Amino acid sequence: MDVKTAFLNGDLEEEIYMEQPEGYVVPGQEKKVCLLKKSLYGLKQAHRAWYNMFSGFVSKLGFSHSKFDQSLFIYRKGVDMSYILLYVDDIILTASSSSLRQSIMSLLAAEFAMKDLSPLNYFLGIVVTQYAGGLFLSQKKYDKEIIEKAEISSYKLSHTLVDIKAKLSNDVGTPYNDPTHYRSLAGALQCLNFTRPDIFYVVQQVCLHMHDSKEKHMGALKRIMWYVKGTLHFGLHLYKSSISRLSSYTDADWGGCLDTRRSTSGYCVFLGNNLVSWSAKRQSTLSRSSAETEYRGVANVVSESCWLRNLLLEINYPIHKSTLIYCDNISAIYLSDNPVQHQRTKHIEMDIHFVREKVARGQVRVCHVISRYQVADIFTKGLSSVLFEDFRDSLSVRRPPAMTAGVC
């Protein structure tokens, strides 16, 4: 659903005056100003005023705020359940029955000027295709817009996203002649990460050099564009699954940044067979060993898993089994369960205690996985084409499904 002129609904808590609008100035009273009774587009308070107005109204309908996602509203009364996801003026509504959904839609339409956009098929630039086996999320239209913006006339087949023999750095090189163009393209690629986790790491790498872009950085960015152009039809699949367990993979590239020697850690979290969360990020501090780097990555994915468990519990889908954390560093696995605090690990004491507490409570189990099956490698380093395509498939980033009758 879409709210028409959403920001005009908000009530203002502050006393705000504005100049008379152009074309509506009262003759002889040009120096007078207008006292606003409602919010207007362009006001810094407009977003907050609209959100407060909407949340206050749905609260009267019986919805409660999610404690773990402020854009989510939850309704539960007996066997009836409904969820509203709000992003500015765009709304996703789902309910346990058609009658409940229609009732809520009628109440919302009576209060706000709403437009029913029919069953979910497009949201925030993401095309949602429903089919018998599940959902397919893609951004094909946005992909084409970025490629046109990049003005890539020629096409070079690129099986891998990055040169696995070299890493990007800020060392001496020829500055790119249009840094604004570079920043524009790098920023645009970030929005593709919503449905293309396979490019998350390389986009993160080119974005690190937005402040001082060189020709070689632009070369890496073009390589991403060639890859995206060759995989326009790819997207993220979400399947029906009977598995109700969270599992995650975490990995880190120790000292991988050639300029700062900071490490890049990455993780991906699966609910059953479906990828629900992923990240690739340069760590904020230096690590003195690979075990420390890997352990910080474990702490990050444990934190994400705890948030997901709490969110799932809140929407009446509790996870009773421990979250499995797969790591390929034996030392990091020992640290998660060993109660002995060694001298060399005191500087990462907070992360150690945090993970150990979750392990002791049975919420988390840190397990070993050999590097060949470490899916999180795709978020920390460049890979050969064979490994890259294998891990990409493990993330359920594939071509669109063959359309069959029925929807999920």
What labels would you give this structure?
globular, DNA/RNA_pol_sf, Reverse transcriptase Ty1/copia-type domain-containing protein, RVT_2
Please describe what this structure looks like.
InterPro entries: DNA/RNA_pol_sf (IPR043502), RVT_2 (IPR013103). It is a single chain. A hairpin with a 2-residue loop joins strand 9 and strand 10. It is built from ten helices and 18 strands. The longest helix has 25 residues. It has 408 residues and is of the alpha+beta class. The chain is 32% helix and 21% strand. The strands form five sheets. The protein has a five-stranded antiparallel beta sheet with strand order 9-10-11-12-18. The chain has a five-stranded mixed beta sheet with strand order 15-14-13-16-17. Helix 4 packs antiparallel against helix 5.
Mean pLDDT across the residues is 87
Helix content: 25-40%
Cross-sheet strand order for the largest sheet: 9-10-11-12-18
Q: How many helical stretches?
A: 10
**Radius of gyration of CA atoms, rounded to a whole number:** 25 Å
Describe the sheet with the most strands.
5 strands, antiparallel
Quickly give the structural class.
Answer: alpha+beta
Q: Using the alpha-carbon principal axes, give the shape.
A: globular
| Succession of helices and strands | EEEHEEEEHEEEEHHHHEEEEHEHHEHE
How far do the termini sit from each other?
A: 20 Å
Low-confidence sequence ranges:
403-408
Please report the total strand number as a whole number: 18
Percent range for β-strand residues: 15-25%
